[in-house]
Specification:
The protein contains 16 helices and 12 strands. The chain is α/β, with parallel strands linked by helices. The radius of gyration is 22 Å and the shape is globular. Bound molecules: pyridoxal-5'-phosphate. The site of pyridoxal-5'-phosphate has 15 residues, from helix 4 and helix 5. Pyridoxal-5'-phosphate (PLP) binds next to helix 4 and helix 5.
Length: about 425
């Protein structure tokens, strides 16, 4: 028996697990095993033919990972999920599951740099073309869609611009063409549920706010169960035609008795089987510990971030502050319609004086950690122009939203007075 609730605070503590059947353990055990004994040859055959779902080998499934998968599925209101080794693995697999050489996807231009590289370079070497669309006008997605478009892809709250993505508008366009929207919800778990706005799939990093403590890398793909792959047979041959890698299974038919989860089952039993980006049970355990407090932490991250945005906005060494709470017009409207419970945990600030001022500010921080991550319980900062974006020209930097004086702040859970005090003393050094 597991406790059912529609409240995120309860879901993250109870969904998918009550106690261990063998030991009555209340904490989710770390099932540190590679393999699982079959009850009989018939049992083994049923598992391999998907007549029965169960554990075969930890590269493909593991009971600790399973609880994380069930909990995140419930949190996002989906049908089933697949935990993988990193956020990058999640975005790669989410696309590889429905697109191959000769196909294309359309992606938002507002993307995490690692995903940009994957899309612009690595997928290209595999023959998958990524067409980029500026999300400020959702119609840009329609303009580059054709018969070989297999998915739309975007981030809910992409930095550095922090412009909330028009999820409903683009998923509506996708529905007209039979194209599913894949959302990277990494920076907005707990404050946005993309499936409620029409998204078909979530592919996120668990490394950031889900884990929340900066100790484990992981990723998650969640299937909403709402996209009709069979209604678009020609667009999705990988789900609707016999798969030679699995005895000719036609995924939309073979999986039907298990629910509307053809997409995620195929990802598990073919891609994870073949490519092996499995999450370790230890990381699943650590991510579950973080997940238990995600709604609470996110609330405080957002409260602190809003106070930081206000503080920086009134500071004479700061030229411009980027945070949805301070936006106007269409951007504010989108933030208000898609985020609930806060305007997000990230703040961007352009320090007056460009490159040297940005660097001086970062070097003067004492409590904030200077590193390339977001979503830790501690406050973090980075100066993109001298690190993650250092290969870009000044024009490219400005186009990306990270100008020479721009710093990205991932606001932590310390007392707000200490956060503001550290920012204030660092600004006084600039
Ligand atoms: N998506 C977003 C929005 C990210 O910020 C990151 C990492 O920073 C990733 C995906 C990749 O996640 P991971 O580092 O877990 O591979």
């Amino acid at each position: 028996m597991t406790i059912k609730s529609s409240h995120k605070e309860t879901i993250v503590l109870h969904a998918g697990y009550r106690k261990d059947n063998a030991t009555n353990s209340v904490a989710v055990p770390i099932y540190q095993t590679t393999s699982y004994q079959f009850d009989s040859t018939e049992h083994a055959a049923n598992l391999f033919s998907l007549k029965e779902l169960g554990n075969i080998y930890t590269r493909i499934m593991n009971p600790t990972c399973d609880v994380l998968e069930q909990r995140l599925t419930a949190l996002e209101g989906g049908a089933a999920a697949l935990a993988v080794s990193s956020g990058q693995a999640a975005s790669m697999m989410a696309i590889q599951n429905i697109a191959h050489a000769g196909d294309n996807i359309v992606s938002s231009t507002d993307l995490y740099g690692g995903t940009w590289n994957l899309f612009a370079n690595t997928l290209k070497t595999m023959g998958i073309e990524v067409r980029f669309a500026d999300p400020s006008n959702p119609e840009n997605f329609a303009k580059v869609t054709d018969d070989r478009t297999r998915a739309y892809y975007a981030e809910t709250l992409p930095n550095p611009k922090l412009h909330v993505f028009p999820i409903q508008e683009v998923s509506d366009i996708g529905k007209k063409h039979g194209v599913p929207l894949i959302m990277d919800n990494t920076a907005a778990h707990g404050i946005c549920r993309p499936f409620e706005h029409g998204a078909a799939i979530i592919a996120s990093s668990c490394t950031k706010y889900i884990g929340g403590h900066g100790n484990s890398i992981g990723g998650i793909i969640i299937d909403s169960g709402n996209f009709d792959w069979e209604a678009n047979k020609d667009r999705f041959p990988m789900l609707n035609q016999p798969d030679p890698s699995y005895h000719g299974a036609i995924w939309t038919e073979a999986v039907k008795p298990l629910g509307p989860i053809a997409y995620i089952i195929k990802a598990r039993v073919t891609l994870l089987r073949d490519c092996g980006q499995a999450m370790s049970p230890m990381n699943a355990f650590l991510l579950l510990q973080g997940l238990e407090t995600l709604p609470l932490r996110m609330e405080r991250h957002c409260q602190n971030a809003e106070k930081v945005a206000e503080f920086l906005n009134n500071h004479d060494k700061v030229m411009n502050v980027i945070h949805p709470s301070l936006m106007e017009g269409e951007q504010k409207k989108r933030a208000d319609s898609y985020l609930s419970g806060g305007y997000g945990p990230l703040v961007g600030a352009e320090i007056k004086g460009g490159m040297e001022s940005g660097k001086k500010f970062i070097d003067s921080l004492k409590m904030f950690y200077h590193l390339a991550n977001i979503g830790d319980s501690r406050s973090l900062a980075i100066h993109p122009a001298s690190t993650t974006h250092s290969q870009l020209t000044e024009d490219e930097l400005n186009a990306s939203g990270a100008s020479e004086g721009y710093v990205r702040l991932s606001i932590g859970l310390e007392h707000i007075d200490d956060i503001l005090s550290d920012l204030g003393q660092a600004l006084s050094e600039v």
